[in-house]
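[stage:ingest] chain + small molecule (protoporphyrin IX containing FE)
[stage:ingest] validated
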Amino acid sequence: MGSEETRIWLLEYVQRYQSWSLDSSGVGKALYLLAGVIFFLVGFYELYSKRVERMAKLPPGPFQWPKFGSLPQLMFLNWGRRTSSSSSSTTTSSLRSILERLVTQYGPLVFLHLGSQSFVLVSNGEMAREVLDVHDAEYYFRPHTTVAKYLGFEFNDIGFSTGKHHRLVRKLCATQLLSHESLNKYEYIRNEARATMINTVWKSASHGNVIEVRDLVLDFTTNVLCRMLLSRTHLDIANIGLGFKQETFKSLVQEIMEVVGKLDTSMFIPWIRWLDLEGRTIELKELNRRLVKYFKGVIEEHEKSLESDDRAHESNDILDVLLSLEGDDMLSDEAIMGILLDMVVGGTSPSSSSVEWALAELVCNPVILDKVQSELDQNVGRDCILKEADLPRLPYFQAVVKETLRLHPAIPLSLPHMNIVPFQLANYELPEMTSVIVNYEAIGRDSTVWQDPLEFKPERFLNVEISTHIKALEVLPFGYGRRACPGANLGLSLVQLALASLVQGFDWMPCAGQIPHDIDLIESSDFICFKAHKLQLLGAPRLAASVYQS
Ligand code: HEM
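[stage:predict] done
[stage:export] tokens:
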């Protein structure tokens, strides 16, 4: 085609096009539509290719829908179904069985985008080391959730605070509140609370009553913690003249556990938080109001008592210590309330759940129970109840405790460990504000580390120090790094003292009509992993009557 011909063809073409575009018969509209579709597709391709590029750098995980991420799939997975493990009667909760499925499908690092929140689930020791050890400083932040605001007293407690304040309260825990000296100082409280517990079981057992192990041990741990912290048992709380009707700290803590355990939509879609669809914010505000009322009363009482001459130089309980801090260490009322609450919640339930699991495993495995009792008889005898100083001389009993903490970690999933800037994890790039959840339960049950991981076999800890396994990040019942449990030593003392005393003091058997095999080991799906059904047992005293009455 010559240039003149081309010019004419183009003119004709433009004229035809102009007539189309001016034509209202529909062809023009169709062209506009087509242009729109092309524009949209090009835009979508651009966006999608960037998304694919971005996602290629993320750990593997289920498909993400725009805006909702993987929420729809997780919601439609069968939350109620329980999966029985093949090699033991241990049964995982529905939530954790879903996570288990994700781990099987995608491996030890799973990326989940839920609503607008990013999560990474870490399920083996090697990956946990990256988060809790190598890059601990980058991953120790916590997201600012509604729970953190109201139960962390505006992020001033231990578990939800960060930065300078977190460093200060952790130092206080290590050097004063939960130090070895402090634990020694309060040994008499543990012994007195233990005596009450043993006496309660003895009375119930003499009447042939069924014993609810969880309630019993929760009473013991709450008594110890409340006395250490506030010099009062939880049962006193209704009497402090604050207008509470039969409010006990135990019931408050129970309510807290229930609210914390609930999943709510605004966790994943924060911009609908103001709607408070599930009414959770109202619940949390109300709990905060009652806690503040309670704690303020106790703080005032302690302040008055400290001002009086006789106690000014003598700190008796942990609240006294907190109120006596001076200079840079001085804490606000919010921080004091946060520390007290963290210690009661963190200290009571995990210790009680560990004792309940241990006793359930022992009754299910009578041969192991027998060995523990023989060891106690040989080393302590039957004329007196054991002392804490006897515990290091009971290696088989110690192995039972360690095995319980491995197989049934009280806190199976960590709180979120968050990075505030984008960060590299293994070969992946995690966007900022990703919440890393460490799956402590999966780490302790990793079949590449532990033989028969779902079997209760204390023998595996007989000749190996648990600290060796902890250093290798193969079992982490108390977490690791900056966010590791500050109350690990106290927790361990409570579990050991309660369990050893119950096993030395009584023979334990299932309720009438049951055999050991009937005791289920189904886990609850709560933040603290209790048995799904409370352990009910019959006890028979094995020591002289005078031991239970002292
Ligand atoms: C058997 C008993 C206990 C177990 C199994 C246990 C377990 C744990 C675990 C696994 C964590 C780390 C969570 C994470 O990685 O985010 C933790 C943190 C914590 N625990 Fe414990 N704990 C026990 C007893 C206690 C006691 C007795 C106290 C206090 C008196 C306590 C107070 C805390 C606090 C305040 C945190 C948060 C630490 C922080 O974020 O800096 N725990 N606990």
